[in-house]
Amino acid sequence: MPSASTFVQEKKSVVDDGKEEWRSYLVPEKLEVLRQLEPWVEDHVLPLLKTVEASWQPSDLLPDPAALGADGFHAACLELRAAAAGVPDELLVCLVANMVTEEALPTYPSVLNRLEVVRDATGADDTAWARWIRGWSAEENRHGDVLNRYMHLSGRFDMREVERTVQHLIRDGMSMHEPASPFHVFVYVAFQERATAIAHGNTARLVGARGAGDAALARICGTVASDEKRHEAAYTRLMGKLFEADPDAAVRAMAYMMQRRIDMPTAFINDGRHSGGDFYARFIAIAEKAGTYTLSDYRCILEHLLRQWCVEDLKVGLSGDGRRAQDYLCAPPHKIKRIEEKTHDRMIRTHKKPTLIPISWIFDRPISVNLP
Ligand SMILES: [Fe+2]
Ligand SMILES: [Fe+2]
After folding, report:
1. 51 is catalytic
2. Domain of residue 229, residue span
3. In a 3-state reduction of DSSP, which class is residue 41?
C-alpha cells in the first residue's frame, strides 16, 4: 500500500547508482545462494500457506443467494446496505484503493516470475519457489473477490468507474527498479505485505462497530489483513535468511530500495478524472487524513523491518558499501519522524485551506483534503 509522498529521497546514492548495482546480484555466486535456499523454503516458508481446505472463501463472508433463498437474500442485502450507508466517503475511497490494489493481482506474480532462480519457468514447476508463488497468488486472489462483491452489494460505489480503474491499472502495470534481483524484490514485498496488512487492518477498525458501524465490512477487511500478516511473515523470514547468508548483499539491496522509496504497487492508480501521477499523490493525502495508511505507518514498518533483520547489529561480512548502506538505513526513521513533526506543525500554523477533490468511484462526490 501507499508510501508517504512527503518522504524526501536522498539526492546522493549510498550504493552505486542504477543498473550496475542490481545487476551485480545476478552473477552466478549470488544466484547460488538462492538455489541453495530451496530446501529451507520448503520447510520454513511453504508451511505459512494454508491448504485450500483450511482457507476461508469470499462466500463465507457475504450473503449466499443459494442458501438464503430469494427472500432471505433480499433481506440480507438490505441489512448489508443499511450498515454500509454509515461509512463516510473518505473511507469508501480508501476501500476502493485497497480493492483495486488487490484486483491488480495478475501484475504481482509476473513480478516474482521475472526473478532469477525463483521464477516458475513452466507455469507448473515443482520447485518450492514456484509452489510458493502460485500458492501465494491463489490466496491473494480471494482478497479482490471478496471486497469487489461487498462493494457491488453495498450500492455505495459507481462500480463501472471502479471496474474501469482496475482494467486501466492492469494494462498500465507497475514499475520496479530492479526487475530480476530476488534480494531487492523480497525487500519490497516484505515491506509491502506489512503495509497492506496495516492498511486493511486500519480500515477494519475505522469502518467497524466502534467506528462507522459496518461490522460485516470490518470482518471482511480483518480477514484479509490476517492473510496479509502470514504473507508478511513469509517474506520477512525469507529476507532474514538472505541477511544471514549474504549480509552485505542484503543490506545494500535494502538501502537501494529505501532510497528510492517503497511506493504502493498501484502508484499508477487513477480514477479517470485526474491526469497522470496526480491522482496517486491525492490518494495518499486522502489515506493520511482517513487514517488507513499514514506517514507514521511507513516509518513504523521501516523500523520494524530494521529490527527484524537486526540491521543495526550487522558487523561481520560488510564491505565499505555495505557499512555505508547500514548507516543510511539506520538514519531514515529519524528523518521521517522529523518530516512528520514538521508537517503537523505547518498544518497547525498555516490553517491551510483544504482542497475539494471529486472522485468518480463515489459518483464524483468531493473529498476535502489538505494537499502537501
Ligand atoms: Fe492481498
Ligand atoms: Fe498480500
Report:
1. no
2. 18-369
3. helix
What's the rounded mean pLDDT across residues 328-347? 74
What letter would DSSP give residue 354? Answer: P
Is residue 66, in this structure, part of any structural domain at all? yes
Q: Is 193 annotated as a binding residue?
A: yes
Residue 196 annotated to the active site: yes
The catalytically annotated residue of 21, 140, 178, 288 is 140
- Taking residues 337-347, report their average pLDDT: 67
CA 100 to ligand 1 center in whole angstroms: 10
Q: Is the pTM for the entire model greater than 0.85? A: yes
Q: Is the pLDDT of residue 303 over 70?
A: yes
CATH code for the domain of 318: 1.10.620.20
User: Does residue 227 carry a catalytic annotation?
Assistant: yes
Write the DSSP assignment of 141-209 as a string of letters.
Answer: HHHHHHHHHHHHHHT-S-HHHHHHHHHHHHHH----SSTT-HHHHHHHHHHHHHHHHHHHHHHHHHHST
d(CA 4, CA 368): 18
Task: Check: CB of residue 336 under 8 Å from CB of residue 295.
Answer: yes
Those residues whose beta carbon sits under 5 angstroms from the ion ligand 2 are: 193, 228, 231
How much distance in Å is there from the Cα of 196 to the middle of ligand 1? 7
Q: Is residue 1 part of a domain?
A: no
- Distance, in Å, from the CA atom of 261 to the CA atom of 294, rounded to the nearest integer, reads 14
Q: How many domains does one find in the chain? A: 1
pLDDT value, residue 274: 79
Q: What pLDDT is recorded for position 18?
A: 62
Give a yes or no: residue 28 inside a domain: yes
Residue 22 appears among annotated catalytic residues: no
In a domain, 13, yes or no: no
Which of 107, 89, 93, 263 is closest to 161 using CA atoms? 93
Q: Which residue has the higher pLDDT, 339 or 195?
A: 195
